Amino acid sequence: MPERDAATEAGSGGLRHVEHAMGTVFSFDVRDTPTPAVTDALRDAVAWLHRVDEVFSTYHPGSQISRLGSGEIRLGDCDPEVAEVMGLCEWAGRVSGGWFSHTPGGSLDPSGIVKGWAIERASDILYRAGARNTCVNGGGDLQLRGEAAPGIPWRIGVAHPLHPGDLTTVVTGRDLAVATSGTAERGAHILDPRTGAPASGALLSVTLVGRHLTDVDAYATAAFAMGDAARSWTASLDGTEAFAVTRDARAWWTAGFPDHGLVPAAAGPGPRQPAV
Amino acid sequence: MRRAVIATTSTVAGVVLLLSLKPHHSAGPALAGSGAGSATLPSQGAGTPAPTSSSTASAPTAGSGSKKSSADSGSFVGSTVQTDYGPVQVEITMSDGKLTGVTALQTPSGAARSQEIAAYAVPRLTQEALGAQSAQIDAVSGASYTSAGYIQSLQSALDKARA
């Protein structure tokens, strides 16, 4: 297992860990007392991420997903998780009217669903070991459980797509999933599944908030590819809210978003504080 | 249809917006410890009750020699960073690993360009994020960063500050 920069710190009643995997960085923030079971679970969650990387990496010709894509092996030859992910991809394609695709550039690439799914699963691993208040952040997509401290909800800043280090909104809540899609960090890497070309770029970033990161992350990817159409589509999603920054640097959000996050006051009678 | 046209008019908004250190535009704002006290932002923002201090800042880049003893608490003055809108220099105040204050020591002098930028949605939100009760950010969501991008990310700063 790669040991780059991995660092675990236990302190003041919690446990933090930073792990490089899947070409990005995963930050674990466990607010519960680090019992031996929780510490073990953190190790398991990290091992899980590396295993997912191995199986699903489209960068490694030897990965199961690469070999499945090339026709070298069949679905039945793969780990059961591969079939699970393929099922999720089909579901995401369906609910997004085809805007989510696991063959965005013509070849098999379920990356759009794998990361969110893997993060949610890592969060589950911690939960089953008794860690009830956790934040797992994989490259900017987060699964949150419980709260930051007794009586205090998690507070998640949403990065401003134009101004590194600055925020565009703050999402507050318990048991939330938050995913953002955009081009700020890796350029135009989201493809329009209809054309195979980079998505139109009508949005600089779109952030989805819901309960489960598997869904929320797939929604964010699809919404970003949709561009302007994402506004009505995200409004139609149950239990999920959205906040987007458009190319002309304006923001829009779904009706329920202000219950979770700060929105520009110019749109309402006054500053909106998120409901806790 | 509700459109979020952000008509923030105050210059403060522009200042707040520009508080972000821009590591992309410099060799990295090396933060060095200083004894300066924290200060609050002027609060003539668009109508909220006095937002007090605190904001977001980019990662103190690795290599700033003043970790532990002062990285958890104290004030840090960033080097002056040339941005597209002019020179920016900020001072941040940390308390127990949490960012509790940001003061702009140097900002572009009301250039038309910065006014234009201030019309974004962001300043208002940033300012609210600065409110006393909302000083703490636990983590950051954003477009997927690479391992290299992480180093300059606010999430990285949070991970470091609390490690």
UniProtKB/TrEMBL annotation, chain B:
Signal peptide extent: 1-32
Coiled-coil stretches noted in the UniProt entry, renumbered to this chain: none
Biased amino acid composition, Low complexity: 29-75
Keyword Metal-binding: no
Keyword Signal assigned: yes
Keywords linked to the UniProt accession: Signal
Location of the region described as Disordered in the Swiss-Prot/TrEMBL record: 29-81
Protein name: FMN-binding protein
Lineage: Bacteria, Bacillati, Actinomycetota, Actinomycetes, Kitasatosporales
Domain FMN-binding: 84-161
Matching Pfam families: FMN_bind (PF04205)
Species in which this protein is naturally found: Streptomyces humicola
